[in-house]
Design brief:
Elements (H helix, E strand, L loop, with lengths): L1 E5 L5 H10 L3 E5 L7 H5 L3 E2 L3 H6 L3 E4 L4 H9 L4 H4 L5 E4 L5 H13 L3 E4 L2 E2 L1 H7 L3 E4 L3 H14 L2 E4 L5 H29 L4 H10 L6 H9 L12 H17 L5 H15 L11 H8 L13
Parallel strand pairs: 1-2, 1-4, 2-3, 4-5, 5-6, 8-9
Antiparallel strand pairs: 7-8
The structure holds nicotinamide-adenine-dinucleotide.
């Protein structure tokens, strides 16, 4: 299988190197030839355009900044589509727009080619180590065919379903990551202003349920995602904790906008008489506002 790789930046460079090290024959391209230096040293060939990469490849990857670059590289005058032969596969690793991905895929299908979206998570260290989460979607048989190449860049390669689903997962993943970051900022500033050393609050949070990953690994799948709202930590107690935390913020003059928003939603859930239910029941309010219920199809089994 001959591989093409376009976009050899902070992520694309090391991902392409891992594909090359796994023994695949590579043709590469970037806006600047210097970006390809380490790849060319492994024996990869340079191509002057995305179309030329596609002409030389069975599978073409892109790792580009965002939607405008992906659209130009895929559909432009000298773009991938101009060079692809029937049966070839285009895989976009960029963090892209789901609607663009879903618009591009049928255009490739119409030419007898295929497209997968497979955004990645794990940062530059993960890209270098070949330890990325790869959120791949599109036709499942095409995914299976390409999985051995995806396995060279990631240690957690997941099939996410129809085209665009991987990109949706990636965008939601990043929004969670940065919201979490912002929540940490307001809670750490409150703790430090109230007299706790940064090292101490960091260790306390890391050693507690948050740092142990209890929310994602156990309580969300066991509770909210399974529709189980029998209490092992009642909402009235969680609401008491967030009330005390936001009181502390007010006492020390630290804005805690995220925590206050959470408290507002907990208050609303309490007003509905849900205080004795599990603390995650307040997430049902968001389901109501979004007009969707978020539940696993099968009962969750730990491990
Ligand atoms: P980057 O800016 O370092 O690399 C992008 C590369 O694309 C550059 O080498 C640039 O020259 C090249 N490029 C831009 N337009 C081009 C074009 N028209 N033709 C050919 N090459 C072109 O960005 P990055 O950090 O490697 O990120 C790439 C993608 O991966 C982005 O979508 C980003 O959101 C995503 N991502 C980044 C990280 C990270 O930690 N950096 C982590 C996960 C996902």
């Amino acid at each position: 299988m001959k591989i093409g790789f376009i976009g050899l930046g902070n992520m694309g460079g090391p991902m392409a190197l891992n594909v090359a090290r796994a023994g695949y024959s590579m043709t590469v391209h970037d806006l600047t030839r210097e970006a390809a230096g380490p790849l060319l040293e492994t024996g990869a060939s340079w191509a002057d355009s995305p179309a030329a990469v596609a002409r030389a490849s069975d599978v073409v990857f892109t790792s580009l900044p965002g939607p405008p670059e992906v659209e130009a590289v895929a559909l432009g005058d000298d773009g991938i589509m101009q060079g692809m032969t029937p049966g070839a596969v285009y895989i976009d690793l960029s963090t892209n727009s789901p609607s663009l991905v879903r618009r591009l895929a049928p255009l490739f299908e119409a030419r007898g080619c295929h497209m997968l979206d497979a955004p990645v998570s794990g940062g530059v260290p993960g890209a270098r180590a070949g330890k990325l989460a790869v959120m791949a979607s599109g036709d499942e048989s095409i995914y299976q065919k390409c999985k051995p190449v995806l396995d060279t860049i990631g240690d957690k390669v997941q099939y996410c379903g129809g085209i665009g689903n991987g990109t949706i997962c990636k965008l939601m993943h990043n929004s969670i990551a940065y919201s979490y970051c912002r929540a940490i900022a307001e809670c750490f500033t409150t703790a430090v202003k109230a007299g706790v050393e940064a090292e101490v609050v960091w260790k306390a949070v890391r050693d507690g349920a948050v740092g142990r990953g209890v929310l994602l690994d156990a309580s969300l799948p066991r509770k909210w995602l399974s529709g189980n709202f029998e209490p092992d930590f009642a909402l009235r107690l969680a609401q008491k904790d967030v009330t005390l935390a936001t009181d502390l913020g007010r006492e020390y003059g630290v804005p805690m906008s995220f925590s206050n928003l959470v408290l507002q939603e907990m208050d609303e859930a309490m007003d509905r008489g849900w205080g004795e239910k599990d603390s995650r029941i307040f997430l049902k309010l968001q389901e109501e506002k979004a007009g969707v219920e978020v539940r696993f199809k099968e009962p969750w089994k730990p491990g």
